[in-house]
Amino acid sequence: MEKLREHLLIGFGNPLLDIAATVSNELLIKYNLKRNDAILAREEHKTLYKDIREQFSAKYTAGGSVQNTLRVCQWILQKPKIATIFGSVGKDNYAKILERKAIEDGLNVRYQYTDDAPTGTCVVLITGDSRSLCAYLAAASHFTLEHLQKPENRQVMQNAEYFYMSGFFLTVSPLSAMEVARHAHKQNGTFMMNLSAPFVSQQFKEPLMSAMPYVGVLFGNKEEAETLAREHNWHTKDVEETGQRIASLPNEDHKRERIVVITQSSQPVLLFQGNSIKDFPVQKMAPEQIVDTNGAGDAFVGGFLAQYIIKKPLDVCVRCGIWAATQIIQQSGCTFEGKPSFQE
Asked: C-alpha angle 332/306/296, rounded to 5°?
């Protein structure tokens, strides 16, 4: 653990308060929402909150994909302040909850505070073992490059070796995303990204592909990878072929091959590097053990990063990711308790 130091890993994402409820299929149909999908809220979702409040019991937890990932990473490392979160929030009570939770779980917090919007929220609709996310970005969409350029934040960037960003962040500040990507490349750090949701490859294809040459490690699930392939007219539904094609997209780092990690729910996790493909079985779970799949993808990356930043072999990183996801889906929300028991 002697390799661990403050600000070693920085995350860039949208800090959101999760409002989770177990709901009926009828509610999904009413709001045109799909199971296991993530979208940005549209006009038609204006009354969704009201419906949840009146018809279902909601639970509020600290959320936002990147913040969840870093919280899980910190939990596994058991040493505070290794990871730092950047994102934009409002000046309100939700922001205080998010910040308190992040700090309790060991994160450094470098939020940008805006007067122009309330803190963002994400409605998490649980139906059986599926979840549907609908995010109201609000303040999260007010993140600016100026925040990164403040001297104290530039210093944090200088100190980091690992930079992790959600695809969701591309919807907010593509300029900041490119600044981080180029900075990581220039100082020989590792820039890592998550495809995050199918809509990112569809509606934000340009910023995604501008950042891609700098991406050293890319995470995504099967559906997100398939959407990327479709958007590029690769004419394949084969996830292994898609993973290899993503790994071989143009790469600014001529010394290191890109690593691509594709999760497939209960099917094996696929790891691509150069021409090699490895698969890692996922622990089978009884349906009654699964409480909430909402944080599974975030937790997987948290587990992976906890090992990756201490330079463990990739096999160990993936196995820790699978272990972390398995822990989180047995809890409601992206929560954890006790000491982590991951064994290599």
From this structure: 30
Q: Please check whether residue 193 is in contact with residue 164, taking contact to mean a CB–CB distance below 8 angstroms.
A: yes
Check residue 331 and report its DSSP letter: S
**DSSP SS3 for 173:** coil
DSSP-derived 3-state class of residue 134? strand
Domains of the chain, first to last: 9-15+63-118+139-329 (3.40.1190.20)
| Residue 38 identity (one-letter amino acid) | A
Instruction: Give the Cα separation of 284 and 256 in Å (integer).
Output: 34
pLDDT tens, position by position, 193-239: 999 999 999 999 999 999 999 999 999 999 999 999 999 999 998 99
Helices (H) and strands (E) in the chain, counts: 13, 14
292 flagged as catalytic: no
Alpha-carbon span 167 to 81, nearest angstrom: 24
The kind and range of the H/E element at 215 are strand 215-221
CA–CA dist 322, 327 (Å, integer): 9
Q: pLDDT by residue (tens digit) across 162-176?
A: 999 999 999 999 999
**Rounded alpha-carbon distances, angstroms, from residue 140 to 24, 109, 323:** 29, 14, 30
Beta-bridge mates of residue 123: 19, 134
Instruction: Identify the active-site residue in 37, 129, 298, 315.
Output: 298
Could you tell me whether strands 190-194 and 215-221 are parallel, antiparallel, or unpaired per DSSP bridges?
parallel
What CA–CA distance (Å, rounded) separates 19 from 48?
Answer: 11
Nearest to 246 by CA among 274, 283, 269, 268: 274
